[in-house]
Amino acid sequence: MSNILGKNITVTLFGESHGAYVGACLDGFPSGIKIDFDYLEKQMNKRKAIGKISTPRNEEDKVEFISGIKAGISEGSPITLLIKNNNVRKKDYEKLENIPRPSHADYVAHIKYGGYEDKSGGGHFSGRLTAPLVACGALAMQLLKEKGIKIGTHLKKVHGIEDRDFVDIEKDIDKVNEIDIAILEEDKKDKILKEIEIAKDNGDSVGGILETAIIGLEVGIGEPFFDTLEGLLAKAIFSIPSVKGIEFGGGFEMCDKYGSEVNDEFIIVDNKVKTKSNNSGGIQGGISNGMPIIIKTAIKPTPSISKIQNSVNLDKMEECELQIAGRHDPCIVHRARVVIDSIIALVLLDLLKEHRGNQL
Amino acid sequence: MSNILGKNITVTLFGESHGAYVGACLDGFPSGIKIDFDYLEKQMNKRKAIGKISTPRNEEDKVEFISGIKAGISEGSPITLLIKNNNVRKKDYEKLENIPRPSHADYVAHIKYGGYEDKSGGGHFSGRLTAPLVACGALAMQLLKEKGIKIGTHLKKVHGIEDRDFVDIEKDIDKVNEIDIAILEEDKKDKILKEIEIAKDNGDSVGGILETAIIGLEVGIGEPFFDTLEGLLAKAIFSIPSVKGIEFGGGFEMCDKYGSEVNDEFIIVDNKVKTKSNNSGGIQGGISNGMPIIIKTAIKPTPSISKIQNSVNLDKMEECELQIAGRHDPCIVHRARVVIDSIIALVLLDLLKEHRGNQL
Amino acid sequence: MSNILGKNITVTLFGESHGAYVGACLDGFPSGIKIDFDYLEKQMNKRKAIGKISTPRNEEDKVEFISGIKAGISEGSPITLLIKNNNVRKKDYEKLENIPRPSHADYVAHIKYGGYEDKSGGGHFSGRLTAPLVACGALAMQLLKEKGIKIGTHLKKVHGIEDRDFVDIEKDIDKVNEIDIAILEEDKKDKILKEIEIAKDNGDSVGGILETAIIGLEVGIGEPFFDTLEGLLAKAIFSIPSVKGIEFGGGFEMCDKYGSEVNDEFIIVDNKVKTKSNNSGGIQGGISNGMPIIIKTAIKPTPSISKIQNSVNLDKMEECELQIAGRHDPCIVHRARVVIDSIIALVLLDLLKEHRGNQL
Amino acid sequence: MSNILGKNITVTLFGESHGAYVGACLDGFPSGIKIDFDYLEKQMNKRKAIGKISTPRNEEDKVEFISGIKAGISEGSPITLLIKNNNVRKKDYEKLENIPRPSHADYVAHIKYGGYEDKSGGGHFSGRLTAPLVACGALAMQLLKEKGIKIGTHLKKVHGIEDRDFVDIEKDIDKVNEIDIAILEEDKKDKILKEIEIAKDNGDSVGGILETAIIGLEVGIGEPFFDTLEGLLAKAIFSIPSVKGIEFGGGFEMCDKYGSEVNDEFIIVDNKVKTKSNNSGGIQGGISNGMPIIIKTAIKPTPSISKIQNSVNLDKMEECELQIAGRHDPCIVHRARVVIDSIIALVLLDLLKEHRGNQL
Hints:
Strand order of the largest sheet of chain A: 1-2-3-7-4
Oligomer: homotetramer
Number of domains of chain A: 1
CATH class of chain A: Alpha Beta
């Protein structure tokens, strides 16, 4: 396993879905920062299960800091935070022990860790591990906001229903960051919620595409040849469970176009260099070019469904049927958006530190 | 800059497009391996400019080893290789010096490196840097092949023209690794070549999608939470110039499906656990599951086109027109496929070493 | 700050002396290991304050595992452990706030972290941080023992009083690992204890030299050119507070000898290659040679003394006198020996993993 | 092997003693720096074999830059440099092939790399690898000098003959950096040279202690808990062949003293905080405190001696005698001093970048 993200500012992630705690240690964070606990709570809330379209497992997700912060101010030493797993029901998982859930990590974990891995709720592979990530991300985001950097993500598409693109990007970022379900168009929100409920009622699940915009990032962030801004963001985002694709700017669609159609010509606006279009998604040569960074992330349908599925009993090495009990999300796309924002914030803060040092 | 890829087996990449050499240092490669120079040359040839659909810049790309290999056998010490830049024409670039080419790294490099960066042919940001990557990758691939791991990539799509999917994967991998232009269907090859030629004749360019398959990789490769197999492959692949998107298995298309449609149910075949479908693309929970790994990579149209474009003069800070001289590829998708294979081989070898140690 | 040790098996260390907890996260530890909690407790006890020669601050140092272990067996996921700080007396330190203690980290921390660092008891710079290190080290040591590797450290010298050298190394290692105060000669133990008590009675402190022996390590561990066995051990050991020197084998004394006097000639014993002497301290070219590894570590006198000292008031920028209150150790050499064993075990386990992979 | 040093500014080292080249790739070095080639040559000369007290192998050691520098100015891309091995005499080593030289890396390399390692002149383990280190170090040192940081090393002791300590540190640093044989006292120089000649005449060798002083480093450099300034310097310095011990400030001698004797009391000088004594060697808590950094490094006698020694034939697994042919240094202490300065400069530059970012 390798549970450390980052180079100069690092996150070490730990815990299991049905263990005592999930948590993280954020190292290299600057001292003297007054933590905005209201903002932290707001970010944590965005990740919470909501009403009918989420798991009935309801976690308080109160973040407890056990090192690195004194009187609400960062000390420079590593910041360790714990989130208690209150709502644990290990027995839901007992009968699953040797029957891996399709498209989950159960089977690979069983082979790699010899059956010793915690199986309850996916153990260390659970989406629950994203809770401490969001907490760390909130601290990173607070710093970025002070530097004029804004990050926002909306549900571009869920099971075929598409939200509009970002248009007035700063305004749209502000908007999605203030709402529970990050969909820009009200009528699309209704349709998407309905789509999720249908899946739920059928014991099924749906996935979607998250679109993220980042503004305010200076020109020059990213360290090619190998530590490109795209590469570092992609590596971080792929660690979020259920992510199966990522594209920047024009992405896959550019493959049907001519260079002359998608090249981003340079212009001067207010004595600053900009590009007329932004098919590069704000990144050229692996380095930020000052334009909004645009990322699309594909989230597969939640693999936990209550429909009967085929699987195998690994002890007996024979095929069998499986009906997953436990409490599951028919869709995690709306909860994942703040996870993506958070992990992006951590990557950017780390790169900013490499660029600017401790003065950030 | 950060020009080091990998953790236990590393590649340090160096050189500029129109400098004396491009090269790389491969460290951690096991000792006692008899290098297959014929295979190395074969791989280098796949990256070479071909006929009408590539740049007229023709480089011999002879790989010279200056450390780590004695009498054709690896010594255990770092393997350094150089590739001479013979066909250098710096004067093509002189007039461009302060007018960044749209969708190239010119502008960001100018800001980040203060104008001191080598501008000729994109300098260190040039696709030419992928030549030493292919050379290192050939060494890695040779080791992987001995362990029964095969990697192959074909042009799934170029400017809207689609090749068929991989079907009989092992056979298809073998096939694409034996042909110059890696397209599975003969008639599609003709159409694609024609498409590229049209772009060229118009002073324009096209992009495409590369599909990669990997077979023979054991279950258990990948180090979550953060060093997932998807994440490490994505980070490496995004360092290849012009890559703007990546997806694994069902990727973005799964966002329109139900979980019950795309979950990969487990079955037993020949007393081995397999999955009926492979929408996970061979990776679950960030770890290989023994099924073929399937990756799609989006390559944008080559940004260098000879059509007149708008840009800005960075010295005068005024808008201007730009016509790019120099010798350019109307399409790099067919040349990029071996680059993708190579960088994947390097990532896999590094992960195998983490998994198995020096015995690999 | 950089609180991560290791490459493939890592320790992330956190906490402050008078915060809620000190703790650590051990990542990459293999799954399926039944933790020997008795051994863990035994190791923790070796670090504890003992009788008259240590601080009156008495900590229970109970290790609480909050992730990575289930039913006493490692799961493969990161192992997080917490040690509660019970015996906290922040008020001892209040008056010190802006008067740095001589030869402590107070002053540099004040400058580097802008006064936001936790000052009580040295905060994150406290020797208390070595408690979780010993806990992680006990887990590493348990694995090493199973592979036939033994590590032991004795007090070679305290304030001028010298213990004898290791003679029958395996027996001596076994002996020191079974006793509270790791001194080989009984009469020297009495003298050393007396020396410490004198220092204590005078409000003063003493330091000493710890000698460590490692046996059972196979030939070939260490990764030159830069990750030599000496270098990695030294880097780790220098992170232990108060360490100011380290030498391997003949060390500094060899500087007065001829090569012909200190070269380790090869011989064959029981059909195995050995060296006649061991001035290399078991390491040649940065790689273990199969002979016992011999390390000497210099521990300076504990900087906390109750004698009045000169210092400066950083707020007023004026010189002043300082009398340190709080509870302090007149000597930490006897407590440090298990810290050195522990951090060595962590370094060796990490290198073994690089060498052997997950099969260790 | 692990041939990469550093985190944000890295050196990748390659080559073998009797291969085509030794060289290095320096990555992360800032752009826009006009390289001082005279200074580079001056530094390279300090490492050269001198007269009677060194090996007759005479290498021109001309540094050829093949990437990262254009018109004498750094471009921001990785700087690769090569040094040709002209004076190669592989045949000197042919008969040695399976008889390891005592206290050399021959035996461990043979086991670790299976006999495939380059054996001539120690291959990749040769002191010759320090030539490219000195070249990279010269570039780092040039930057440090511009920031007011000075580094100097003298031969504190050779085979029992002691030079005086640094007294007026800045003046002494300037002095040793201008002389060939870095000994502060003229009469000690004569004695030491004589001592080396005697060793040489006897087919023997001597070692010594190098003392290094660093001034001008700001308060706050070093990243505890694990990346302490002592630890990072020690790790780097132990990678230099023949180093067997290191101490900072009072080092091992403090073990005989009371805390009250060696604690560094704070005083105010010119409105700046200083310490009255400097037993901490300029480092407290792993962080620079603004006082001169004082390091002592133990260099063992050169293991290559021409006296007949006992060894074993690894093929036949039988004991035998060995007389080492080849051309060897009876002492490397005088040549090693610039190697230590160079590697220290690289470590400091890397830490400065972590502290200050690209503005350094």
